[in-house]
Give the backbone structure.
Amino acid sequence: QVQLVESGGGLVQPGGSLRLSCVASGRRFSINHMAWYRQAPGKGRELVALITNKFSTNYADSVKGRFTISRDNDKNTVYLQMNSLKPEDTAVYYCNSRTSLEVYGYWGQGTQVTVSS
């Protein structure tokens, strides 16, 4: 069973930074495509950033140039560095792990990010 544990969320002022981490266990980490999604109150879950098992990355237009996704296969961890945060970035952020054969994969429990002055 795959388990994903997110950390690093919190309250930050507009313009500030946070780094989210997601530690995975349960299967070989390097084969997984890893992603961060977010869900704001009253809205659907949206893809924020993706990093494939070949280290290719993709970002939502709303975060390009501000967020960076990375992974450390030795630590079974994926990161999301978030800079220049805006109030509209406020959401619960979820880590997702998926292989090329899976449609949905596995989800973490989420970590709250609140951007407010």
Remarks:
- The longest strand covers residues 18-25.
